Amino acid sequence: MRRIYADNAATTALSPKVLDKMMPYLTTVYGNPSSLYGIGAEAKEAVEEARAKIATLIGANSPNEIYFTSGGSEADNWAIKGMCRALKKKGKTHIITSKFEHHAVLHTCKALEKEGFEVTYLDVYENGIVKVEDVKNAIKDTTALVTIMYANNEIGTIQPIKEIGAICRENKVIFHTDAVQAVGNVDINVEDQNIDMLSLTGHKFHGPKGCGALYCRRGVRPEILIDGGAQERTRRAGTENVAGIVGLAEALELSLSTMNERNARLTKMRDRLMDGLLTIERSRVNGDRVHRLPGNINMCFEGIEGESLLLRLDMAGICASSGSACTSGDLDPSHVLLSIGLPHEIAHGSMRLSFSDDNTEEDVDYILEQVPKIVDYLRMMSPLWEKIKEEERNN
Amino acid sequence: MAYTEKVMDHFANPRNVGEIKDASGVGEVGNSKCGDIMKMYIKVEGNVIVDCKFKTFGCGAAIATSSMATELIKGKTIDEALKLTNKAVMEALDGLPPVKVHCSVLAEQAIKAALADYYTRQGIDPEPIVGKIQECDHDHGCGCSDF
What we know:
The structure holds 2 protein chains of 2 kinds. Chain A is of the alpha/beta class. Chain A has 14 helices and 12 strands. In chain A, helix 4 (103-114) links the parallel strand 3 and strand 4. In chain A, helix 8 packs parallel to helix 13 (361-380). The longest helix of chain A is centred in the first third of the chain and has 20 residues, at 38-57. The radius of gyration of chain A is 22 Å and the shape is globular. Chain B has a 3-stranded antiparallel sheet. Helix content of chain B is 40%, strand content 18%. Chain B has 6 helices and 3 strands; from the N terminus they run H-E-E-E-H-H-H-H-H. In chain B, helix 1 (5-12) crosses helix 2 (60-73), helix 2 packs across helix 5 and helix 4 packs across helix 5 (101-121). Chain B is α+β, with helices and mostly antiparallel strands. Chain B has helices spanning 5-12, 60-73, 78-82, 86-92, 101-121, 127-130; strands at 25-31, 36-45, 48-57. Chain A binds chain B through residues 303-308, 311, 315, 324-326, 329, 331-333, 343-345, 348, 380-386, and chain B through 1, 8, 11-12, 14, 17-18, 28, 32-39, 54-63, 97, 99, 138, 140, 142.
């Protein structure tokens, strides 16, 4: 049976080229970068080389602005908790974010509410895009931090980062962006885009899991989150994940070196797939069609439930994901789909497909052949679909 | 979260899907806001449920528990069907993940709702026999009719 991996927003396959680069640090060069002898120094050198590479690739001024973390969640936690706690001492107790951030940001903000911070959750409207004007209007004297994701993990919508950054700079407010879904997939330049802090993780662009980074502009100093040894210039303790760090840098370089061609190809595939699936009656695309990640497709099919759709897709060899309540063990459907105004019953019937370099036009053909059949089958047994059709007849 | 082979079998090849045009009783529980609706049809002859069909909008477990519930009552007497519990449905499926237990409750309630409708059509008050139908066991303020 055909197997199509179309869940690259969840994670990606490790690139063999990246693994090759990592291998020495998993085998012979196992020294602790803090040690003085040969294999320690060699490991240290690899870490610093990776740091410099990443700094250049995201347009940072200096390698010293890059701090390695265990991944995106830690980077988000550190950026937000660390910065807000540092600024609280100066009377800054207000945070601005959006309603559809990743839980690594939303739950961090919720945790800070318990510490006395006030949080403004901005609307993202039907198209899934924050309005710059709303950010401007929400800023007040006590605002410590604005944290808005670069691209949404479920619906792929890309936010007006540069403009939000400019507003923050004008108002002397620190701007953090969770760019976990965007890095490696879109052009990012922290200088040009007025970004003060940025979270990224390697496994979204064919790097290894368990290694990410936080960019902090020079002078932006969040309080320490992980206390301990003197690693990361005393800002983040813990023996470096050397192989992970090397893999992260290599994966980012590879991903950016092929980005333009890939994005042109994926955008074409994405649009063909969305248009094809939109021929299914009572289907819709979630989020802005243009300002979205090249590989992201998120759609709803009325009258069916997301988990059964995913299970049937899996039976047909297609790995996808859903914002349905049932995939999360939660009872409510995805907060992202609710935030763009979808009613519960429609949000339950969502499907996300996310492509990477490994996907092909043949994958699109196969998905276009399978999804309508599955939707038809599930609708045939759905009493909700029966009701929808009955209402149609009565109107 | 992983489903047992039996759950996957009943999800992949659900038994007794459809409607019964001249049903003796029809019951529907759940609501679209919660993400699951089950509709059960029964055909009663004498004291025996000679046919049972279902339609379900919901997750894999919702479909599998509906399918299993129809299998468990088909060919049985009404008295036997009244004794069907969610536990029996779960056991017949070799278990459900904890977050999916409510699906088996819904399946039991769907059968009871169909039986209640059967009694109502006979002019008999179903409540003393079938009990109250619980349409949704979620307690997340979704507006479900919790009892």
